[in-house]
Design a protein that fits this description.
globular; alpha/beta; about 425 residues; binds zinc ion
């Protein structure tokens, strides 16, 4: 294995500036913060040269790292969102801090090698947050831990035995974990299924100005249950209890009507779409164009990690729109890159998302000579590239991925294989 190096400048064959690729761009930084960006510059001999097209770091706004162990194990016999959820509960019951550390380390390594330089971890396994933090530190990905409130099994229902550990400490225990978090951390409400209105009404005060995320209307059943119990849509319930606002991001928003969309936009709420997960779980195709047109900032997330590929995520937004509308070009390439960069950082409350003075020196270099990308207009790379085309990833000026491999941890495949095998082994007996 190699080690981390921190060159003081990077020279990019092409770099993404103001929504388009520009040639011969010199990026300099000090202590990981960009101090100059110069297009049309000759390459200084000491600069680290980056071939292909360099994007700002990509932010994965919605992740459950441990779900990575479910990939390719939930397709036999068909099933539904709800049978998938049973498999996820079975996995959660087998995790302890060591297993979680190995699994999250492997999952974050896969993400970083794919170009995600920041991740919002929607964390609902109390007691395992330290393992998540240690994994992110080991890999070098920027982590926003979203400590998640989870109190009920559904409207008027207690937590099921499989859900008990998610609710550890109740509302007060959650609020204490949020207050004790790192400065960059945020918080989450699992969903209106898992948090009753009286608790929703106390969330904003507990969270303050930290980023707040909530799963919203992923499945039609959530809307039906909410209407039956509370007489309104989940969006309306979140609005009336003060959960929505400019530091809030709703995740999915697959089944939101025109009234819900104007409520989301009117409160300045951002939306994180997770289209590969929404396809995998048969959630549906959300109204991405309508949400963007209403004024909701859009971000993207790989959620359950059935796919870890930012380009596939972005492309799936546009493909969903084409299939739904019969029209092409509903989202232009620059809008898709913006969701991966500016939108993702906004949703996580992080600086970044652009190659600009004062932004973190987070860079993702994408090959233009692979079988997928050769011959493509670099301005349209997001519609053809894949995670395997990311050759170099820089976080805070440090080169963490080279030739598609983490410089300290190597390729993600072997790490994932070992961690997933261990995660599914018989549970460790309680001491
Ligand atoms: Zn989720």
């Amino acid at each position: 294995m190699g080690k981390r190096v921190t060159p003081s400048s990077f020279w990019c064959e092409l770099a993404w500036l103001d929504g388009a690729p520009a040639p011969d761009v010199l990026v300099e930084h000090r202590d990981g913060v960009i101090t100059s960006v110069t297009p049309g510059a000759p390459a200084p001999p000491a600069a680290h040269r980056l071939a292909g097209c360099v994007l700002p770091g990509l932010a994965n706004a919605h992740s459950h790292a441990f779900h990575r162990a479910l990939r390719g194990r939930t397709h036999a016999g068909g099933g539904t969102f709800w049978t998938w959820r049973d498999a996820m509960y079975a996995l959660a019951a087998r995790l302890d801090p060591d297993r979680y550390l190995a699994l999250a380390t492997a999952a974050f390594t896969e993400m970083l090698c794919a170009g995600w330089t920041a991740v919002g971890e929607f964390h609902y396994l109390p007691g395992l947050a330290d393992a998540v933090r240690a994994a992110a530190d080991r890999v070098g990905v920027r982590l926003v831990l979203l400590e998640t409130l989870y109190l009920a099994g559904g409207p008027g229902q207690a937590l099921s035995p499989a859900q008990q550990r998610f609710g550890h400490g109740g509302f007060d225990g959650w609020a204490q974990r949020v207050a004790a978090g790192r400065a960059a951390d945020g918080a989450a409400v699992h969903s209106v299924r898992a948090v009753p209105p009286d608790a929703l009404a106390r969330v904003r005060e507990a969270v303050g100005s930290r980023p707040l995320h909530v799963h919203l209307s992923e499945q039609p059943a959530e809307n039906a249950d909410c209407r039956a119990a509370y007489g309104c849509s989940p969006t309306r319930l979140l609005a009336e209890t003060g959960v929505l606002g400019p530091t809030t991001t709703v995740v999915h928003a697959t089944h939101v009507d025109v009234g819900d969309r104007s409520t989301l936009a009117g409160t300045g709420t951002a939306v994180c779409l997770c289209p590969t997960t929404e396809a995998d779980l048969a959630d549906g195709i959300g109204p991405a164009r309508e949400l963007a047109d209403a004024g909701c900032p859009l971000a993207l997330g790989s959620d359950q990690h059935a796919v870890v590929d930012p380009f596939a995520e972005a492309r799936a937004v546009e493909y969903g729109e084409r299939l739904r509308s019969g029209k092409r070009g509903r989202f232009g390439p620059a809008e898709l890159v913006s969701a991966l960069t500016v939108g993702g950082h906004h949703a996580l409350g992080l600086p970044g998302g652009a190659l600009a003075v004062g932004a973190p020196c987070d860079l993702v270099a994408v090959r233009r000579d692979s079988a997928r990308t050769a011959g493509a207009d670099p301005a349209q790379l997001v519609l053809v590239a894949g995670a395997a085309d990311v050759h170099t990833v820089v976080v805070g000026g440090q080169v963490l991925v080279r030739d598609g491999r983490h410089v300290e941890l190597g390729e993600p495949g072997p790490l994932l294989a070992a961690a997933i095998t261990a995660a599914w082994a018989q549970p460790v007996p309680a001491p």
